[in-house]
Design goal:
Blueprint lengths: L1 E3 L28 H13 L3 E3 L7 H4 L4 H17 L9 E2 L17 H8 L7 E2 L2 H22 L2 E4 L21 H11 L4 E5 L6 H6 L6 E8 L24 E6 L5 H18 L3 E6 L18 H10 L5 E5 L5 H12 L4
Parallel strand pairs: 1-2, 1-5, 5-10, 6-7, 6-9, 7-8, 9-10
Antiparallel strand pairs: 3-4
Bound molecules: zinc ion.
Zinc ion binds next to loops.
Amino acid sequence: MITYYSPTHLQHDPNQLSQPAGASPAYSSEVPARAEIIRSALETNRLSAIIAPPDRGCEPLRAVHTHALLDLLEHGYDDLTALHRNAAARPLAAIPETYAVRTGDAPRSTSLWAKLGWHCYDTSAPLLAGSWDAIYWSAQCAVAAAAHVYDQGGVAYALCRPPGHHASADLYGGFCYVNNTALAAQWLAAQRMRVAVVDVDYHHGNGTQEIFYLRNDVLTLSLHVDPDVDYPYYWGYADETGQGYGAGYNVNLPLPKHTDEVDYLAALRQAVDRVRDYAPDVLIVAVGFDTYIDDPVGGFRLTTVTYPRIAEQLASLHKPTVIVQEGGYARHALAANALAFLAPFA
Ligand SMILES: [Zn+2]
């Protein structure tokens, strides 16, 4: 197994913002320590070589996301700074002041605030001074892992931060800006590979679902908490199964809050059976450790011993595999959980 990692993620630190009154505990959970804990655990245990991804430019990002979204992510913070050029201090972050109710055409206004409200759908994804570089290199990690598996087979782990699975082609939110998992899937699909994505984060991978919803060359499956009770609320129901060519190629397995290992592994078996029927050339696993019992954002009851069992089911497909890091916020358990999950692949 090889791991792609870039220290550039350290420049994206939402923790420097104070939490708004009444914000959910999730608000300040996506912090640089998350990726550093996992990197350090991999180094200490010599589980994997860790290398920096090559720079493949913006093309892989443009293959998934709209120009307007990428332009905002790249320039939004600088545009905000320009608006505040006469202020005593630089602004900390670009966060929408309004959220668009999307009814059709893109906004006519060229104001930064119109763009932020149009492309961002919640309060958890601030654009800071260093965010774009972190987003860009997180994306490069995922693409590098896809290219590695295409060239050499085996398993490649993209230690992405910020995460990506809540970002759709034209929207960002949920700690996510660019959909790293979708970038890897699209890069492989462009090489005419049949791709299956299994998302085992606690939350529904709504961005990944949306990006491939009309397609049958990328099968998307997600196990997650029932959106009736938890984020992202507007997506993730079992009857969202794809449309057009994609009909039948999106599988949602929503699970009740407090789901334990027995029920989780039973649902995973369903997902793995569906992947086996699909017979992909390559598997992408979007992994989040927020399924852990003590996760401050999650609400399932999985423990560290469950992660190798999840990994073994996925590895039993015997496919070249790209693993993309998504969520996981219980920092005290992150090293153990990541090692437990990755060891069967390594
Ligand atoms: Zn999550």
